[in-house]
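Hi W.,

Here's what went into the run:
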Amino acid sequence: MKCDILVIGAGALGLSAAYHLKRGNPEKSVLVVDRHGGPGQGNSAKSEGAFRNTFTSETNYLLADSTIDWFTHMQEDLGHDIKLGFLGYLWLFSEEQHRRVTPAIRRMMERGVELRELGKEELQDAIPDLVTDLGDDEEVELMGLESVETGLFCPKSGSLDADALVRSYEEEFLKLGGEVSYGTEVQRLVLKGEPELGIPGEPFVWQEARITGAETGKGEIEAETTIVAAGVWSETLLDPIGVDAMMRPKKRQLFVFKDPKLEGLMDVKGLNEEGALPLTVLPKSAVFLKAEVTEGSVWLGCADDIGRPFDLEDDPQAEEDYYTDSLYHVLVKYFPCFADLRPMNSWAGQYAVNSLDGAPVVSGEPGMIYVGAASGSGIMKCDALGRIVAAFHAGEEEAELYGGRRFRVADLGVADRRVERETFII
Amino acid sequence: MKCDILVIGAGALGLSAAYHLKRGNPEKSVLVVDRHGGPGQGNSAKSEGAFRNTFTSETNYLLADSTIDWFTHMQEDLGHDIKLGFLGYLWLFSEEQHRRVTPAIRRMMERGVELRELGKEELQDAIPDLVTDLGDDEEVELMGLESVETGLFCPKSGSLDADALVRSYEEEFLKLGGEVSYGTEVQRLVLKGEPELGIPGEPFVWQEARITGAETGKGEIEAETTIVAAGVWSETLLDPIGVDAMMRPKKRQLFVFKDPKLEGLMDVKGLNEEGALPLTVLPKSAVFLKAEVTEGSVWLGCADDIGRPFDLEDDPQAEEDYYTDSLYHVLVKYFPCFADLRPMNSWAGQYAVNSLDGAPVVSGEPGMIYVGAASGSGIMKCDALGRIVAAFHAGEEEAELYGGRRFRVADLGVADRRVERETFII
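Here's what came out:
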């Protein structure tokens, strides 16, 4: 089998890259392969589908902000129902946190990010179910929980249906004549020496080593360019050829609740049109929750850090204990309406965590482009990253993001990386 | 078992850290554990034992330059026979390479690095066995080999006996009352929640997770502070607690030659007192060789990049094919005296490669300090890194390196890392 461009991975990043590559190279054959039976069945579909333009790093801001504009275009102009909901993000800060993040908030505002600061009373009025003042009972003290002093509301953010998003990209890609092959598992990248001699043991150290495609369960696929967009699984392809995926996989869990007690969270005032709870980040332990308007449920997650292993799992599972023993105790102090509730559903996926700067990587080796290390924000940056991959492939110095802003391709690379460290991480 | 400071790993980094920690904290108990039966038996003793102060990054320069001064102090003042030999490094450049590296050479010279540029004829006079002009035979063209145009000689560099070095650190550490426990394998770091409740499942997300020591084959060792200095094996300790070791392990091989044909390499003129071949880097494929004066042999290695897997191996082996099929063909063009020679000995170790900036990492989590990702230059930076670990432990902003220069501790961390990317890598 042969193609001009082979894309490994039919998640949000792979399909966006494939779409933009095909768009820029209509004469080239572009083939997307994935081991799953359809698009987005790795970690894309397990994502909470949240997006925000609230990043302290200029890089992350540009990637996300332009991708959010593209989401609107996709839904409003291209007619894809990706269930785009601008519910907003709401960061709840204790007094001390607020002091610490104030310079970052100011910088984001100067950059043009729409942000609204809410005082304790405004928060209380908007979300009657939220307890801002935790008092000083023994448990609160033991757990180190702090009262909410302020909220930071970011309107250009919310959530979408990640599954619908990848399907929309796939549809647009197929319309352009792109090809997909599901149920095709890549076993390894093929590395050849140039000039090729056909001798066992190549590539030798004096040859240029070049990626010439991939060995799959359905045979070898030769390609001029291979795009590695396999998310957390990218390391299983890149490690054997000695290329660093610049990320480690970490499990993230989501718990879903549906209960009459939570109806107040669907009746929030003055924050968004839907009157629903924005994606709300608690002051402690990066616990967050959001209303899922279309199904009338509330989703709960947590960006746990130290203590949560780095480990590549094929089928990570949510742990009920994690909710009952860990998250619940934090959650119920700020949202007592969760008292005695248990999740009706839960699942887990994996983040590809870049510990150094929290920004994605787009880098190349001869015959190959790698896009990944998206650190849990791949979906909300997928359109910009797809365009950057296409610009990299075309040998352009800058990519044009949706809406016309320009982005220096090498900024996301390894050799000449220029990325500010992100400090708003969840 | 209990100690104040537990150091995991008795390699160059672990023992240097232990020594400087004990020196700064004579009242504290400092215990070094290692699964091997003695010091430096992981990758330290497998190293080529080379050192140089020729780095383009200011950080790497400071770390190595001050450590080299310490080596001299160790040998001349403290009386340790670490077989320090200032044979020098000699980088051979093609015309095009020379053009490319000229700005970096100028920057290093401005910084005060002693460097000497040699023309083709000077090289020829110094090393009669070196072929600078490769001609244009078919093989040379096929292999993309280029003639040598210039050489860059760096006198403040050379090699030492890595085994003697770690034993010297151990001796100094033991003199101060430090303790070692060999044959003690660490199975995992112990992570506890604070405040500790004694409930299964800790640490919960709302607790501060703290490393309180390590579980070993000889029982649990409790420590106020645990230093992780386990080289490439650090990831097996850090992954389970979700801390990124910021490096991937890559095999490096060394081949040893002893033959009357190589006697000319022990009779080099005008470069060093010993009249022996400096550590010489060929213009192609990062192949290097050096005279090992004390045993009258020549060591050959290669810093292979793409194509050489990232993979953690407990007992990596040298591959004879790698010499005969890959290195030999490059080597023999520049040094025909190797014609038909086979290595009399060979072995392999692993580099802990930091792909992003090629500099080491010293970072912390509650109760723990990690030092690693030294990217193959851990031995030549070991003294500075040990001092930086000790300064980190003392909560100092700056470390004083040997000779008095100061170094900002956070520069090697993750959260506030400030490191120039290294471009002189072998």
